[in-house]
Structures
1.
Amino acid sequence: MLTLTLTTTTNLGPMLEQLAVRARLVAGETPPTDTELAEVHDHVAKQLDVTRAAQAKALKTQLGDALPKGIRLKKVDSARDGLTLTSMTTLELDDVSLVPEVVLAAAEGQPPLKPFAGFTVKQDKTQVTLTGRAPTMPEGAGRLALTLEPSSPPLSHNAASVAGGALAWAGNGFDVKVVFAR
């Protein structure tokens, strides 16, 4: 048994500010003042609060329908700090060999995302090894974190941190290697 949590953190502030400046310049106006940008931030933040719960509910439904056998949705959650959004999806897997099969919901009308499709699981008589490179987010788009909570401690790992048996990696395009006893 393995619990996998994928967390993405995205700061919408810089993108929102760039859009506000471009819109004003295209309209032949001066760039927005700091006060006007603060008003835009507040307006967008309020909209995010309204849509966050509905999006989480839709994601649960969409993911529940897309998950392969042996993978169950445990929790979908999100948080907002200003214009920084953090989305957490926690799955329960019957076996580590299912990590490459993990699917996540994509944009409407798009096929589900498989962020760990490039991961490999090698098994021999005594151990199971999970290796792979986490997806790379576009420059400035945010931060990705992966937490694995195995039901028994691994023989070895390259996790950036460990807390209470949970192995954690974070960054952009990080390498993962975990060796479990069979």
2.
Amino acid sequence: MRIYFDNNLINRLSEGGQARRLRSALDARRDYVMASGFNILEVMADRDHERRTARLRAISSIATTFVTEPELYRQGLELRGEIIRCRPCWLSKLPDPEVQTWVLKMRREYLANWRKLADLTEFSENNPPNWNDELFQAFSDQLHPIKGEAQKSQKALRDKIPAKNRASAQKDYSRIRWDIPGVDLRTLTAGIAEREMRWRFVAYGEWEGIILTRTPGSRDLRMFPNPAFRREPIDTQDYARFWFQDVDGDQIPTTRLIALVQMFQIDHPVRASNVLDLHHAIHLLDCDAVLTGDQSFAMVMKDVARYLPTVGKPIFVPNGENGVVYDPVESIIDTLDAV
């Protein structure tokens, strides 16, 4: 079974050799673990050097495979395919050679950074004191634009809740203003199931600054695979029709899953980890199970899995109960055995 851990569990496993114990136990079960750049980015948010080192070593010890393509690159490829199918007129006919060179360089560097992680997290006294600061910079240069764009998208969605209704709107989607200025959303979404309309609404907003308004500071267009967008502006009505009538959700699974996670997160309190949870959840698409020690995040993923029954299984791993803290390795293995 292919497994993905969020950082809540990685943090638990970073002390006392627990990560190596878990790796042995998973090897015996013939399970293997995938790690992502977002695992690294979340570790690097910690300013404590020793704690960062321990958590990076835990990732290196547990993981048997790594995400070798940035998730954004995969997401961009999926959406480009739908644009070529539905709106080829939006794209220039000739690829931008500068962008081609940049994307190739970015992909090579992303893979090289994983190799650097494997080398540097060996238990060695020879690593310089600031070695993981260098690694942080390498990953964050590629991943922070994604995090920033997700934060803007989440804020825009929550701003659709009228201030006087925000407390109750967390449990009632009908109080959210599902409207787009200048677009007859009622006509466009006629016959579309309610939840289907809502993830499309979220996706519309997620990509609006990139495709429609080309807002300065939005996700770097160079990261979107070639061919690039034409310089001519895109009509708002046409952009809305693309999302609400023409896009096939099965062809853009990453965008759809991210939109669903954002939608279901409205049911839960806003937390600093929400943005990175979006990107951990992506691995419901390429793993058999995503394990988390965060009960709220597990509930969000279970909502997504009920909507998309073909994705991997979200699994909550408890930390303890009644004041008793569980052994993290035994808790994970027992939870997997019970699935």
